[in-house]
Structures are given as C-alpha cells and as structure tokens.
From TrEMBL:
Its EC number is 2.7.1.26, 2.7.7.2. It comes from Virgibacillus salinus. Gene3D superfamilies: HUPs (3.40.50.620), Riboflavin kinase-like (2.40.30.30). Residues 185-311 form the Riboflavin kinase domain. CDD domains: FAD_synthetase_N. Belongs to the ribF family. This is Riboflavin biosynthesis protein. Pathway: Cofactor biosynthesis; FMN biosynthesis; FMN from riboflavin (ATP route): step 1/1; Cofactor biosynthesis; FAD biosynthesis; FAD from FMN: step 1/1.
Length: 312
C-alpha cells in the first residue's frame, strides 16, 4: 500500500493518477462500521479493475476546530491505521492534513480538489460523513456536487446488538474497562504498539520480570488495571499479563500510567524491541498493597486466572 500525504492545495497531477474507488472518513479504530465502508470500496475497485484508496485526515478535526480541546489520543494512531488498511487490501492511502485552511473550504471546493482532483471515480462513505466549511457538505447533498465525474455509495448505520458501532462508544467502553465488548465492536483485539525501555526492574526481584513499553503520546490507553494480553513479537505470539497504571504500592508520584507486560514463559532481553500487545480481557483494578508479599499473591492469582482464560 502506498501512503501519500497531502496538504491543501496538493500538487498531484490528475493525468498521472489512476482511476480510483475511494472510501473517505477519519476512521479512528477502523471498527466494524468503518470496515464495511472500506471493504465496499475495495470490492468495487476490484469489480471495476481500478485501484482502491482510503482518504483520511490527520490530526483529528477537534485539534484544529476546538480551542480548548485536550490532547487527542487515538484508538488507532496513524501508523497502526496504515497497517490495518494494508491488511484490508487497500492500494493507496491519502492522508490529508487537517488545518484551518482545509476547514474553511466550501463543500464544492473540497470535492473539486480532493475527490475529482484525485481521479476518484466512485466514492464510498458512511451516512454521517460531512465535509467542507462547518460540515455543510454531506452524503445527501453530494449528488449536486459530482459534476457527473464520479458516483458514490452511502453506507447506512451499522448496529450490533441494537447499538450503533462508533468510535466514541468504543472509547467509552475502554475507559470503563469493558474491553471484550470494545473488541467486539472493533472486530479484533485492541492493539497497542510500543518500544521496550528500561524500567525500575522491580519485577525481576519478585519473580515477574516485565517489559516496560514506551508508547506514543497519541495512543489511547484503556482503563487502568490488570489485563490478559497477547504479545506479538517477530512473528510469534505469546500469552501474558499487563499492568497499566501507576504502581501505587511502590510510588505515589507517577503522573502518567506505565504499561508493563509480563510475558509468560519468556525470559530473553527485549530492550529496544518493538512489541504489539493485544488486549483481551480486563482482570481487575490496580490496587495499592500493604506489602510486597501481598502484591505477589495477587499477581500469582492474576497469572492463574489469565492462563485459564486463554485455555478456555
């Protein structure tokens, strides 16, 4: 998959671009609803013997449009989004810089520049996709802006268990520790990537060495606590447990939560290596223990619980 970063106005030459079927949206999480939009575009591209594309934006519009917006964390940061889209068979990814200039474009200007101007012959989007200044463009009005140069497909609301599948709902579930339901809406386990860095090395002294992960600041982390996880490393998959939190038994001054993973039956040095951690089940809240012995007893029980979970 080829990734092409664009800023308005882009300088791509129309005649040099392939005829393309594109899915458009922000697609944070690439959940089951997003997948239906993207897979529809990929399928239609194959039918028409065209290239498939995804048109997305970075950063999140709220970063630009809301003065008091907090730092945005993503269910799928851009790099992970790229990896998932490649797995879905997308040929090219257009990443459009979302800035004030882009936000001020009139709907027709946006369509002329980023749809017609990218040689998109068929556009696929969710029913709630909007574009142009103050979101004035939408999938009901787009028929007046095609200029007869492209067709489009609108994907209706995707529901599971009578509930709309949405990124905001998944965020809410992750913050509440409802990981398995969030994974159901995602259509895969939540995955977080990180580089193994040196930590306090306290885990070794209590019989549970951990890989301490440095994750990018824009990664959305689930609720603080202990989790059943799987670790993907060099094409191998390992079971393990992760503690996401502040280690209150040993310190009370940590500002940001740390991600520490104990990989079952693995003792090799991983410093500097990148791990992909799949989050499968929330086990319990993080607690402050009165002694190291009490902590170790809990960890022993966590390990038994998680091994049984993966065996069941």
């Amino acid at each position: 998959m080829r990734t092409i970063e664009l800023t308005y106005p882009h300088t791509l030459i129309l005649e040099e671009l392939p005829e393309t079927v594109a899915a458009i949206g922000f697609f944070d999480g690439i959940h089951k609803g997003h997948q239906k939009v993207i897979q529809t575009a990929v399928s239609k591209a194959k039918e028409r013997k065209m290239e498939s594309a995804v048109i997305t934006f970075h950063p999140h519009p709220s970063v630009v449009l809301k003065k008091d917006a907090p730092h945005v964390r993503y269910i799928t940061p851009l790099r992970e989004k790229q990896e998932i889209l490649q797995q879905l068979g997308v040929n090219r990814l257009y990443v459009i810089t979302f800035n004030k200039e882009l936000a001020s474009l009139e709907p027709q200007q946006f369509i002329d520049h980023f749809i017609i101007g990218l040689k998109i012959k068929h556009l696929v989007a969710g029913f709630d996709f909007s574009y142009g200044h103050k979101g004035q463009g939408n999938m009901e009005r787009i028929k007046n802006q095609t200029k007869g140069l492209f067709n489009y497909t609108t994907i209706g609301k995707v529901e599971l268990d009578n509930e709309k599948v949405s990124s905001s709902r998944i965020r809410e579930l992750l913050q509440n520790g409802e990981l398995e339901k969030a994974n159901y809406l995602l259509g895969r386990p939540l995955t977080i990537q990180g580089i193994v860095v040196e930590g306090d090395q306290r885990g070794r002294t209590i019989g549970y060495p951990t890989a301490n992960l440095r994750v990018t600041p824009d990664t959305l982390l689930p609720k603080v606590g202990v989790y059943a996880v799987k670790v993907l490393y060099k094409n191998e998959v390992y079971e393990g447990m992760a503690n996401l939190g502040y280690n209150p038994t040993f310190t009370d001054d940590r500002v940001e939560p740390s991600v520490e993973v104990n990989i079952f039956d693995y003792n090799n040095d991983l410093y500097g290596e990148e791990l992909h951690v799949e989050w499968h089940k929330f086990i319990r809240e993080e607690e402050k223990f009165n002694s190291v012995e009490e902590l170790v007893n809990y960890i022993d029980n966590d390990e038994k619980c998680i091994r049984n979970y993966f065996c069941s």
